[in-house]
Amino acid sequence: MLKIGITGGIGTGKTVVSRVFALLSVPVYDSDARAKWVMQHDEVLRQELITAYGAEAFTAEGELNRSYLASVVFNNPERLEQLNTLVHPHVRHDFAKWAALHADKPYVLKEAALMYESEAWKQMDQIITVFAPMETRIKRLLHRDTHRTEEDIRNIISKQLSEEERMSRAEHIIYNDDQQLIIPQVLKLHEQLIASEITK
How far, in Å, are 48, 83, 89 from residue 55 at the CA level? Predict the structure, then answer.
């Protein structure tokens, strides 16, 4: 079974592309959603978070206090790096267990915005990056995240890995630029991945 990573900057549409793969019965691991689940349910990580950020990391009811954690790491690169260093190893372990459940499939997808920053790429056999031009991304995000300004969005993008670096490090690129259709690109890549696994 191949482990395929799928990544892309904010607003490129990697989640949309992942959903197309899911319609083809490809198992998709959503790193963002699973990270939240792991932070809530992994007892070792819970204790690490409490040690690092205090009892306020969880509510009185035992729920992850996401707003508190966000306020602690917001505009504090060192604290954000600390949080990522704690969480990412547990997510990698969770992915490994999840992937083992789908060993009968030709390949699985791991969707992760921080594919390289979290070193999740080291678990992958190949990487897909989803590309969209800057102005297209900004337009989409202004429509989606109505609480954000264009300046906010440009600031977020500036802190992410550049599209050039993502594209240079990926084996496959899917263009979600409103010029090329996504589905034919996904179907073609899907067939290639299945063929490459069958002929291994």
Answer: 11, 15, 22
